[in-house]
Design goal:
Elements (H helix, E strand, L loop, with lengths): L1 H8 L2 E4 L5 E5 L10 E9 L9 E10 L6 E8 L10 H7 L12 H12 L3 E4 L3 H14 L8 E4 H9 L10 H7 L10 H27 L1
Parallel strand pairs: 3-6, 6-7
Antiparallel strand pairs: 1-2, 1-7, 3-4, 4-5
Length: 218
Amino acid sequence: MEALHSLLAMGLRRLDPEGRPTGEPGELADLAGAGALFVVDLEMSGPNPQIHEILDIGGVRAALAPGLPEEEAWSARVRPKRIGNAVPAALKVVGYSPKAWKTALDLEAAMDRFATTGRDAIVTGWGMAQDLAFLAEAFRQLGEPWPFAELAIDVQAIARALLKGNGEVDRFNLGHVADRLGIGRMGEHGALADAYATYDVLVKLVERVARLTAERER
């Protein structure tokens, strides 16, 4: 577990009680009482959490144990209330249409289920700043407390620390790194597909470090 915690600490960040980054890196000691990671992805109608909205949300809960075994996954499309504020390019990326979102959940129902799935876990993702901003704003709008740990893990930062300069990866977007690590993907720009891709990249990095450690100890 010490090796796993050391790897996760490369991307560990502290959050305030509302889920906003404090700017402080996390430390190994912060992981001592943690039981799970919640690997998340959001697709939004634009970049500003005060103006734009979550349209698609997904997460994979994994035990903070050797191998990061998956415990549960959940996703849903979210019904927008201010679609007129949306950035057209963002709608195109996520594939939004009124027909496709006909059975979408309202924000309150979606966030309630999302919070239940990830309760007390460490929110984990790829380049976390925007996702964290939208999550914090959604819970603020709903008058609900931050349901996760006051920690976040940025898998992109871990990938940079482990892969930069080795010639294997030349840019650090999720799709490129997943492809270079031989990870098959469910699709692109769907929340659950990207959450799973992030989870799979993290598992692959954990496996790689464990293998290298074992080889050095022989």
